[in-house]
Each structure stands twice: as C-alpha cells, then as structure tokens.
Amino acid sequence: MTPLIQLRQLEKSFPTRPSPTYVLRQINLDLQEGDFVTIMGPSGAGKSTLLSILGLYDSAWTGEYWLDGQPVHTLKPRERAELNKRSVGFVFQQFHLLEDLTVAENLDIPLSYRDIRKSEREATVADTLDRFGIVGKKDLFPAQLSGGQQQLVAVARAIIAKPRLLLADEPTGNLHTDQGRQIMELFKKLNGEGTTVIQVTHSETNATYGNRIIRLRDGWMEK
What's the CATH code, domain 35-60+76-221? Predict the structure, then answer.
C-alpha cells in the first residue's frame, strides 16, 4: 500500500553566516492512511515547522514530499493551495478563528472552497454544530466564547470538510484538563473513522492516544 505521506531527505534551513542554520535535517518518513502520529521533542526541535510543511503552509524547503500520490515538491503554488484545501485540516494552538465571522460562518469557510451547493453547506454546518454540542453558539463571535469553546469550533472547522489529513499543533495547550481530554477523545474518534491524525504536543498523556511517536531533536529525527 502506498503511504499517504512520504518524505525523502526533507530539509529546511535559513541563510546565515558563515553557514546556513538548519531547522530540519534529512527527514525520511512514511505515514500510512489511518495513522495517529505524535511529533514530540524539546522547544526548537523543528516540530511545528515539520507540521507546517506537512500542511502545505510552508514551501521553502528542499527534498521530496509526496501527499496522497501528489509530488508536492513539483507542484506550483496554486496547485499546493488546492491540495491543501482538498486534503488537509489544521488545528492551530491559537485557534485562528476569523473574529468578524460568527461560529456558523467560520464553519462554512472550508466548505465554501468546494463545489458544494449552499443548501448542502448549510445542512453540513447544522450537523457539525449539533455533533460538537455548539448549536446554541452558532450566532456568536469568537470573542464571545471561552477558550475551550473556541478550540472546539477550531476543531469542528478543521474536520467539517472531511479532510484525509488532520494536523494539530499543541491542540490542548490553552485548555483545562477536562477540555483537553474532550479534544483528544474527539481526535481518537475521528481517527477511528479513518482520518489520519498528526499532532505536535509536549504531553505524554496526549501521545498515548496515537499509535506512533516521532521524536525530533535539533531538527533530526531520533532513530
């Protein structure tokens, strides 16, 4: 079976004198569809950088990256953007909700990128609001929500279009213990339904929800 993700000799560096500063070094990695992977390591190890590259938000790197059979390293910027919209959901630590849109409007954004009729989009948003228990919040703006509620909305937005790949950067970092557990149980459920999940976390507890741990140190993958 062809892996969902293949990385070959992936590296990222910044030009500094007298020699470049490397953030990632010689990353070789195969991830299968349906994996639940945790990326761990000390601060500055390159975890969030790797996640950003996997999510197609960062194109300034060298090496080869294949996602769902597509050679990301040869795609034009517009093609990468299309692949991102079609295949990737991303949960940011700082939520990144659009402050001037309601909860329902935030959820509609990923659906608006796709060829879906407005009536279908409205039905999908309604179903997702119900699934996440936030129907009563649909007309509120992000600033009117607690941190836990904002993160729930962020996760809902990330998965509403049923991406093949769900990426999460410290998804429980700003949450209380119970809220964090709720988010992790949700990831586990989504993974059980077939979504590939990759999370960056410092939490050994959160890591136990996955089936594989990748450890980075100074940009290198530990063997």
Answer: 3.40.50.300
Beta carbons within 8 Å of 164's beta carbon, 6+ residues apart: 4, 33, 68, 87, 88, 195, 196
57 touches 201 (CB < 8 A): no
pLDDT tens digits along 181-206: 888 998 999 999 999 999 999 999 99
pLDDT tens across 105-133, in order? 999 998 987 878 889 999 999 999 998 88
- Sequence letter at residue 207: A
Residue 213: strand pairing partners = 38
62-67 and 5-14: which strand pairing? antiparallel
Residue 193 identity (one-letter amino acid)? E
Task: Give the domain ranges of the chain.
Answer: 35-60+76-221
pLDDT bracket for residue 149 (50, 70, 90): confident
Task: In whole angstroms, give the CA distance from residue 150 to residue 155.
Answer: 9
